[in-house]
Design the sequence.
């Protein structure tokens, strides 16, 4: 009880609020049929992957399917292995990561602007119609949004840290792991990586080197010279 009172006093939702939000978010996941063609396609490819035992070559109705990177196929195939093949388990990866954007956004805003602003940001995102709709569909967008959001948020926290401080270095390094995962979720993120926004950094050598390391060839871009 005291934890909930303290959480409310600082503008942070208590654990009960997060549980209710999670229940509301996942309530309709098992009751809706798959939507054609996208949900059916992204549910069938990992099913065939699991059935064939070939986790390297994606197939859709027996045809080779290399249009998208395989991270979501692998994650969904693992969900099938653990929970069984169902409409619910086919959506678990994408819907779960879309939900994870909520605490991620809350934590970021709370760190920069305080608990009250974070609660407003959480509410705004949680009731955004487009986020709600796309976040509940078995698409690659949920995972892409989560990993890109994590990368951008870590980068902005690095930029708001004292220049050349351990915190800046720590946050810049934290921005590195999520972006390859976003590239493995959908090919569009390969064309633009959030870490390339170090072109607008304070000009610190570390940020420039990080950009060059994370985006091969970026040192040849005029904006990053």
Sequence:
């Amino acid at each position: 009880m005291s934890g909930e009172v303290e959480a409310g006093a600082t503008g942070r939702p208590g654990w009960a609020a997060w549980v209710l939000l999670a229940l509301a978010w996942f309530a309709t996941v098992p009751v809706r049929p798959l939507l054609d063609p996208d949900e059916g396609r992204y549910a069938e490819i990992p099913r065939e992957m699991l059935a064939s035992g070939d986790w390297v070559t994606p197939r859709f109705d027996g045809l080779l399917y290399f249009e998208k990177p395989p991270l979501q196929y692998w994650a969904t195939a693992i969900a099938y292995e653990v929970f069984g093949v169902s409409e619910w388990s086919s959506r678990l990866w994408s819907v779960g990561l879309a939900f994870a954007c909520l605490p991620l956004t809350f934590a970021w805003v709370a760190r920069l602007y305080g608990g009250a602003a974070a609660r407003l940001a959480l509410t705004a995102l949680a009731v955004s119609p487009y986020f709600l709709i796309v976040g509940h569909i078995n698409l690659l967008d949920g995972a892409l949004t989560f990993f890109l959001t994590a990368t951008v948020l870590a980068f902005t926290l690095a930029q708001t840290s004292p220049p050349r401080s351990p915190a800046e270095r720590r946050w810049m390094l934290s921005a590195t792991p999520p972006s390859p995962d976003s590239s493995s979720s959908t090919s569009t993120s390969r064309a633009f990586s959030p870490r390339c926004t170090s072109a607008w950094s304070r000009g610190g050598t570390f940020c420039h080197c990080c950009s060059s390391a994370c985006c091969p060839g970026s040192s040849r871009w005029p904006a990053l010279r």
Q: What stands out?
A: The chain is about 60% helix and 0% strand. Residues 87-113 form the longest helix (27 residues). Confidence is low (pLDDT under 50) at residues 1-10, 188-225. The first strand starts at residue 59 and ends at 60.
